Amino acid sequence: MVPGYNQTRRPQVHFSPAVNFMNDPNGLFYYNGTYHMYYQYNPTGITAGNQHWGHATSDDLYHWHNQPIALSPESPDEGIFSGSAVVDVDNTSGFFGNQSSSNPGIVAIYTLNTPSKETQNIAYSTDGGYTFTKYSGNPVIDINSNQFRDPKVIWHADTKKWVMAVALPTQFSVVFYTSSDLKNWKKASTFSHHGWLGNQFECPNLVEVPVHNSQQQNSGETKWVLVVSVNPGAPQGGSFTQFFPGEFDGTDFTPEDDAARWVDFGKDNYAMQFFYGTENKTLGLGWASNWQYTNIVPTSPWRSAMTLPRQYALWNDPVLSWQFISNPTDMSTIMNKNLFSGKVTKSKNIKLGDGSGAYYFDIYVSQDQGQATQRANFTFISSSTKEELRMGLLMDNGPSFFIDRSGTKGFDYPLFTDKFATIQYGGIGGWHVYGVLDKMILETFLNEGEQSATTTYFSNGVLDKFSISLDTGLSATVNVTALKSGWDQKK
Amino acid sequence: MVPGYNQTRRPQVHFSPAVNFMNDPNGLFYYNGTYHMYYQYNPTGITAGNQHWGHATSDDLYHWHNQPIALSPESPDEGIFSGSAVVDVDNTSGFFGNQSSSNPGIVAIYTLNTPSKETQNIAYSTDGGYTFTKYSGNPVIDINSNQFRDPKVIWHADTKKWVMAVALPTQFSVVFYTSSDLKNWKKASTFSHHGWLGNQFECPNLVEVPVHNSQQQNSGETKWVLVVSVNPGAPQGGSFTQFFPGEFDGTDFTPEDDAARWVDFGKDNYAMQFFYGTENKTLGLGWASNWQYTNIVPTSPWRSAMTLPRQYALWNDPVLSWQFISNPTDMSTIMNKNLFSGKVTKSKNIKLGDGSGAYYFDIYVSQDQGQATQRANFTFISSSTKEELRMGLLMDNGPSFFIDRSGTKGFDYPLFTDKFATIQYGGIGGWHVYGVLDKMILETFLNEGEQSATTTYFSNGVLDKFSISLDTGLSATVNVTALKSGWDQKK
Question: What is the ipTM of this complex?
């Protein structure tokens, strides 16, 4: 195992830094078999501040290799804030004249935060993203504002232009810029005062997404999605991420409607970013924390983890309108021993093994006809402390699906909301509940990923039992499988 | 005291029915010194169903007189669903030809729910709203839909027309109709897919509202507000109410922007309705419950209460954008003995008296310069059970204001969310926190009503102590006053 990754609350299949504080994912890109993830990182402390770009690489998004810091500030009053990265295969930037086409250059686009303002800057890498040189002509965009950040750049094939989405946070606005060389940017349009405003907009991401014509089936069509993170002032408190389905023509984003929609019904999924360069798959991940409590949660010597890597699609659900479907990316490289597989009626206690401490669970619940008010409980329990992390279906009002972290006792704080719920009106042949439990993160998916929740929790005892109890009239097909640690070498 | 209003959890300054189940306020109107409130009512049970229009009257909105049921279904498979009432001073309907102008007719507009469909119907009252005759030409609007309900009618002076807002719930739409006689209605426009969608839209309300140019100061201008309730699928679970500021020209509502905004950061304020006939004041109230748990909360022999009556205004806050300011209407008729008035540093325990059990609290918190991370706690405590209902300011992230009902132990349910929070970035000369504690309802207002939260709670012991504790660097000016019961005769 990679040294330093064996603490009681250390996630085993979610990325976290070995030490110190991490927040937003930055510069996600994929090229030639390797996923690169940069992230907001304080290399000198366990709370936010002194922002650098940390770096890690992976070939499956579960086994990560920590890399040296990729971007550092030049002085103590600078911060390298969030941004993105692209593969400049055609050397549009001119930085990579001497490189072979099999080793294209990487350009990082980030916000430089100083006491006086925030500007957009670029840096280039000739070694595939491991080391960067800051562009001598920085900043590439300067509007004399101290609220102007988080550039996410994509290549827009139809117009053959680079497109940047960047936030004017306190104006509740996303501004789109276009460029042909990543150095000279022209303002194209502004998307303003849509969705849930909170106190400010951050981390806009524009991405093309496959459209499904059912929860599972790809229609072959695509739409664009604009993702905007809000902090503070999310509807459940603090930070959250919302999405807008729509069309993008190279200059203007036009939403499908004027509705506000979240990507996650928990409250630990912020600053979601999508990987550049994954072709026709939309892959992304978020920061699995919330600014309301991230600086004080009880983990050491590090704080924060990323969500599971997920694959995304859009579906215009006939009841719930547009949903952003997400599912964990292929987990085959971390699947370990099956702990239980079979049908459950009434109740079942499943002992969780002593492996990495991360588990996959998959439950299909079926209901007899004519049974109205019923409940299905799925509870992770600590034998030693009797703490409980609860999930369940309530059939009497919608029905609802709930997550309740109030029974885990390692962290008590007025803003650490205990209970989350969503409508879960029915999936394919019943209700499908699946996901991953990983030491301090519960990630739950409903009905083929139509809804999902990321929920951090902090138990004092290890959750070593999974208890299922079903009211009369309900039955479930259950699969619980141990997961290998992503911090072990792959075998 | 009115008989039947002395139970441990019976609200004393909030309206509740003596027995059985209540939900949405209906038909709110004011005429000639009397406020009339109708409400969705099941006269035969303590859970929702068998919907009638209950009725109560008041001259101050705190002392209520229960009246006989105003509208009843004709058969067991009918329901008299939500709707509104108007004063037809000019006898536009033709129902009131023989009445004197000092005793104008009242017309109620409601949804008739049957197993096959929902239609809009009217009934008229020649005795000022106490008894109604259903119109022989009903329904007045029938679109052959079983999802078409909750008509709210206003008089639009500029176009000299009646205007109805009514919901197509599962289409996330509000439809506007116009009429000159309340009988013949013409579709004018549709407002669709704005704001938070959830699972369905209910109880639209269109109202003209004074615009303030600070938290407190009336600019003399007005705007229109469209209020839409959502259930299920609110961001905190279940039901909530959202508002859209905008303009209305008699046929079309045009929102100021495409943002989603709530009226309350708690989760017990649904189906808000505004009083017809209050001239240039905008008065309204909501149902202080949530469909996720309203049928099972531990009160008997009744369930549910209304929120405090509130006066509304709009303010375009320079930081938070449009806010719907609300404050309790004049409480002078229920103010009783002052229990504490003075400055608090460090901490103070205030004994709550043995009066009605309802209290008004008013706290201004000031902060010394240079003090960053601080906390102010305001906690209602039961001496007998040690239960706590907590509120507080956290200065370290925004700052935030929180409400935490997890310390009251009379009701435990996975959807009874424990913790609520909002940004509270600063008021006039500090932070202003005030409101009412009333046996099972905590109603909290921040910064001159710019934000508010309605929170039901169910403690086993009586909350008989109010504890204030302030970190170093904070001080507070505190006023706690006992309230008279609205169910006592006025003196």
Answer: 0.95
